[in-house]
Amino acid sequence: MMVAGGDFITSEVLEYLNSFGKEVQAVFGNMDEPLLKETLPETLELKIEGLNIGIYHGNGPPQGIEERVKAKFKDIMDAYIFGHTHYPINEVIEHSLYFNPGTVTGYKASLGFLYIEFKKIYGEIIYLN
Asked: Pick from 42, 45, 89, 96: CA 20 to 30 A from residue 75's CA?
């Protein structure tokens, strides 16, 4: 499964991800074209191997983004996946993983992998430069 936190800009990018034949779970970002904002949700909650995972692009400045992401969900999640700042974050705060894989474009390009083992979720950031 692929998870994407928005800022595709155009629907062609999402179509490209779908072309890999894997399930794509995605939310829209603030830079996305209107068609994506009409077809993708703002937030998404997944249950994977008994863990609750919340996905939201994010908003506002980098400072305090974790609190704003958490506030978008009614329940406490085991993991929050977000983007917006394009700055990688892989941190556990109060028993929840906060994971921003960064961006595959630009300076310090990165992507992220999430792993679930023994009912625990953890992330890995891979730098592409």
From this structure: 89
The answer to whether residues 32 and 8 touch, using CB atoms and an 8 Å cutoff, is: yes
Range of the domain at 43: 2-127
Closest to 80 measured CA to CA, from 51, 103, 106: 51
What's the CA gap between 99 and 80, in Å, rounded?
A: 6
- List the CATH number of the domain containing 102: 3.60.21.10
pTM of the model: 0.94
> What is the domain count for the chain?
1
